[in-house]
């Protein structure tokens, strides 16, 4: 069993058509720019939105660990949280929320079924992402099998940082992969994500060799990977694969992760690594490089 920390409906950037996206907790990478840090850990995590808090102290009173106190800066966590969820269940304004919960399969499918009509009419379906869904391959496959029984198009959004056996197992149960390609230089990849990229590149080639449909998604960040050297290396790698990606999406950097980290009580980009959205000139240059290598490419998802 894996925990789901969010369900996004009417998603238009997570594969073809209009989709329902399920977010699974747990990720082996720690990308500096990640905009879903609540998905890092496999366990539930508490999130606090100060502007929603009315200072009623209900959470303080119900916490069995006496872990919460009200300060001039809002509710403060004393570091003894067991993620029991009692404070979030009682918070009247949802200032406290728990990211991550178990879903019975029938309940999860009931949520998915709510948007069946719009998904079918738009040529969409269900996308499973994270976190990294391949961390929970058995449960992921159970969900994909159930979606298949119900006739939904299935997409898996992944870093492909997993064993080839897991990749093959999932490939048998989905119609499309969305694959992150962050950097071609493994040392730089490790610097920004805490893991090397050898396994990722190998699995991209694996998907290509077995002819499974996949899109490539590049988080496009000035100061990290928007330089001509990395873009050219990425284009050369992708264009020489046995089967090219159907699409390459250049996802322009944004810093929405700042707010998420604030709600978690953690710090976004603690080392102050310089990251910016690429200029329009840089975006056009990237498109030119990719398209010159015969890759179907666009800005955005």
Poorly predicted residue ranges: none
Strand content: 15-25%
Mean pLDDT: 97
Strand order of the largest sheet: 1-2-7-8-9-10-11-12
Q: Roughly how much helix do the residues carry, as a percent range?
A: 25-40%
Give the CATH class of the largest domain: Alpha Beta
The dominant shape is globular
Number of strands: 12
Structural class computed from helices and strand pairing: alpha/beta
Give the CATH superfamily of the largest domain.
Aldolase class I
Q: Can you tell me the CATH architecture of the largest domain?
A: Alpha-Beta Barrel
What is the straight-line distance between the termini?
A: 29 Å
Q: Spell out the helices and strands N to C.
A: EEEHEEHEHHEHEHEHHEHEHHE
Q: With helices defined by DSSP (H or I, 4 residues minimum), what is the helix count?
A: 11
| CATH T-level fold name of the largest domain | TIM Barrel
Radius of gyration: 20 Å
Number of domains: 2
**Main sheet overview:** 8 strands, mixed
Describe this structure in words.
This protein is an alpha/beta fold and 301 residues long. The protein folds into 2 domains: 238 residues, Aldolase class I (TIM Barrel); 53 residues, Alpha-Beta Plaits (2-Layer Sandwich). 34% of the residues lie in helices and 20% in strands. It contains 11 helices and 12 strands. The strands form 3 sheets. An 8-stranded mixed beta sheet has the order 1-2-7-8-9-10-11-12. The protein has a two-stranded antiparallel sheet with strand order 3-6. Strands 4-5 form a two-stranded antiparallel ribbon. Strand 4 and strand 5 form a beta hairpin. Helix 6 packs parallel to helix 8 and helix 9 packs parallel to helix 11. The longest helix is centred in the middle third of the chain and has 13 residues. It is globular and about 60 Å long.
């Amino acid at each position: 069993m894996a925990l789901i920390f969010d369900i996004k409906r009417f998603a238009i950037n997570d594969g073809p058509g209009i989709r329902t996206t399920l977010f699974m907790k747990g990720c082996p990478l720690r990308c500096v720019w990640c905009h879903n840090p609540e998905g890092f850990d496999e366990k539930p995590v508490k999130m606090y939105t100060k502007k929603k808090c009315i200072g009623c102290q209900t959470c303080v009173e119900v916490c069995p660990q006496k872990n919460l106190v009200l300060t001039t800066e809002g509710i403060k966590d004393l570091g003894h949280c067991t993620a029991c969820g009692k404070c979030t269940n009682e918070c009247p304004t949802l200032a406290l929320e728990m990211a991550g919960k178990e879903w019975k399969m029938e309940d999860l499918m009931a949520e998915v079924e709510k948007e069946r009509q719009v998904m079918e009419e738009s040529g969409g379906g269900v996308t499973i992402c994270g976190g990294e869904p391949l961390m929970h391959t058995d449960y992921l496959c159970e969900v994909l099998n159930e979606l298949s029984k119900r006739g939904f198009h299935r997409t898996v959004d992944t870093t492909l940082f997993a064993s080839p056996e897991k990749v093959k197992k999932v490939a048998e149960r989905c119609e499309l992969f969305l694959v992150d390609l962050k950097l071609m230089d493994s040392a730089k990849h490790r610097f920004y994500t805490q893991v090397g990229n050898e396994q990722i590149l190998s699995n991209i080639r694996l998907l290509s060799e077995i002819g499974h449909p996949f899109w490539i998604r590049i988080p496009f960040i000035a100061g990290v990977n928007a330089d001509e050297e990395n873009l050219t290396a990425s284009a050369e790698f992708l264009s020489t694969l046995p089967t090219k990606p159907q699409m390459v999406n250049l996802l322009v950097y944004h810093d929405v992760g700042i707010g998420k980290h604030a709600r978690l009580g953690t710090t976004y980009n603690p080392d102050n690594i310089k990251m910016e959205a690429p200029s329009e000139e840089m975006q056009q240059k990237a498109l030119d490089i990719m398209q010159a290598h015969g890759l179907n490419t666009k800005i955005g998802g």
